[in-house]
């Protein structure tokens, strides 16, 4: 009897290719730049809060809307653009997010009051909010299976680069001009440049297969095989049934699909994004203010926060090294809990200058082990048809938490529990989310994306 020879699928061919810096690496770099600008924009809120508070005489509750409006815009943008990416393509959605972000960022420079400024920051956030879920879906779908954990984790190394640039560049601008507008305007030029760089990336072959665009999918796959120097093999492109189209109700169709796929996994992922990012964004947006309230000079506070972000690059590299060795869940659990506890210590020793910098730097390193692993994990637990949306909705949850959380933190938790008690409460929520992850969600280390 003749045994039928197995013919791999197109997605299996893409995920079995060797890693080449001039092929998949180029996509990693361009996608990473988009992530870097996201970090820069979010970190800039921490710079703008004290500067605008002084210029416009804002109360803490008013000033909190600088970050809250921006992050709520990102929350809306995360699931809207992620749905668009799952319906019309990763590449088109990403380009549009950057264009919207750049336009409203420029407009924010001309704002003269907190209401207009918050509205423009909301719209800029709406544009940028789709960058991360679309980025991770796109990069993950081009990355070979055996490298995917490290590559997706390494994506987060771009975050501390952007966050550190926000702190260091803003400190320099404030020293030179004592004005909040140059720090805001400075981040627009590289974001505009990214639109042109984006032209170098092809559409995801897995998306093309999922939407039955077989001719385009073969062009991309054959191009990848040739560019990586791999021997061509015969492969199949399966015809998918019920290909979803873009419609007014697409966002909610994708949301239903995410929960229908696995409510257990989705609940666990949402809890992780809700709690871990709440803790991180409170530190990112309000640490400069907490430091200045404790007696630190303005420039020193900005540089300390910039240092926290910069050392996060080391954390992301540590995560990249460990993620395939330890598995996603154990590494995420340990780093998220330890990072949250470190913030409690920062608050407790805030008036001991010699202790503050080491604690802040260690926190910056540890939390940037947790976040890249969490992002990599969330981008792996959903199938191709829901990958961008699954990540996008989780990202939206984190943005809502990051937008409303700091507002509640400074207006309710700190007055009720004090700064140390407020951070203790936040750390406890992270512990709950980690327990839920172990009880409800699967491990994804080493699995093919189509197997999940």
Automatic annotation (TrEMBL):
- Transmembrane intervals: 27-52, 64-85, 92-112, 118-138, 158-178, 184-201, 261-281, 301-323, 330-350, 356-378, 390-414, 420-441
Give the GO cellular component terms, alphabetically: plasma membrane
UniProt-recorded Gene Ontology molecular function terms: transmembrane transporter activity
- InterPro entries given for it? MFS, MFS_dom, MFS_trans_sf, Sugar_transporter_CS
Report the main location listed first in the record.
Answer: membrane
Q: Which PROSITE patterns match?
A: MFS, SUGAR_TRANSPORT_2
Which keywords, in A-to-Z order, does the entry hold?
Membrane, Transmembrane, Transmembrane helix, Transport
All copies of the Major facilitator superfamily (MFS) profile domain together span: 27-445
Q: Any idea where this protein resides?
A: Cell membrane
Q: How does it sit in the membrane?
A: Multi-pass membrane protein
Q: Does the keyword Transmembrane apply?
A: yes
PANTHER family associated with the record: SYNAPTIC VESICLE GLYCOPROTEIN 2
Name of the protein described by the UniProt record: Putative MFS transporter
């Amino acid at each position: 009897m003749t045994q039928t020879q197995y013919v791999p699928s197109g997605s299996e061919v893409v995920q079995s290719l060797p890693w080449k810096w001039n092929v998949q690496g180029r996509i990693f770099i361009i996608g990473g730049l988009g992530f870097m600008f996201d970090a820069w924009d979010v970190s800039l809120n921490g710079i703008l809060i004290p500067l605008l508070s002084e210029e416009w005489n804002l109360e803490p509750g008013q000033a909190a809307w600088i970050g809250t409006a921006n992050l709520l815009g990102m929350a809306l943008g995360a699931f809207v653009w992620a749905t668009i990416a799952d319906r019309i393509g990763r590449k088109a959605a990403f380009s549009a997010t950057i264009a919207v972000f750049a336009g409203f960022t420029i407009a924010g420079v001309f704002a003269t009051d907190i209401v207009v400024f918050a509205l423009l920051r909301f719209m800029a956030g709406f544009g940028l909010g789709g960058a991360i879920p679309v980025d991770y879906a796109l990069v993950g779908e081009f990355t070979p299976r055996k490298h995917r954990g490290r590559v997706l984790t390494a994506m987060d190394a771009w975050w501390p680069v952007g966050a550190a640039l926000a702190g260091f560049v803003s400190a320099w601008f404030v020293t030179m001009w004592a004005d909040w507008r140059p720090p805001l305007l400075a981040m627009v030029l590289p974001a505009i440049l990214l639109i042109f760089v984006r032209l170098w990336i092809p559409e995801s072959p897995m998306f093309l297969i999922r939407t039955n665009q077989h001719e385009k999918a073969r062009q991309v796959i054959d191009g990848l095989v040739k560019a990586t120097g791999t021997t061509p093999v015969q492969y199949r492109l399966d015809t998918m049934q019920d290909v979803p189209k873009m419609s007014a109700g697409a966002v909610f169709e994708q949301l239903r699909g995410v929960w229908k796929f696995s409510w257990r996994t989705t609940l666990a992922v949402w809890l992780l994004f809700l709690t871990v990012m709440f803790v991180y964004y409170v530190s990112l947006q309000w640490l400069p203010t907490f430091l200045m309230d404790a007696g630190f000079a303005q420039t020193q506070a900005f540089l300390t926060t910039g240092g926290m972000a910069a050392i996060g690059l080391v954390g992301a590299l540590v995560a990249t090294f460990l993620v395939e060795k330890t598995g996603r869940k154990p590494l995420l659990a340990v780093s998220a809990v330890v990072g949250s506890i470190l913030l409690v210590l920062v608050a407790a020793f805030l008036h001991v200058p010699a202790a503050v910098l080491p604690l802040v730097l260690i926190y910056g390193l540890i939390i940037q082990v947790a976040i890249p692993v969490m992002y990599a994990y969330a981008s792996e637990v959903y199938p191709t048809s829901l990958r961008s949306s699954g990540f996008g909705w989780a990202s939206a949850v984190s943005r809502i938490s990051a937008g409303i959380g700091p507002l509640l933190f400074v207006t309710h938790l700190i007055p009720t529990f004090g700064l140390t008690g407020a951070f203790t409460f936040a750390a406890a929520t992270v512990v709950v989310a980690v327990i839920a992850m172990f009880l409800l969600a699967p491990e994804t280390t080493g699995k093919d994306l189509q197997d999940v």
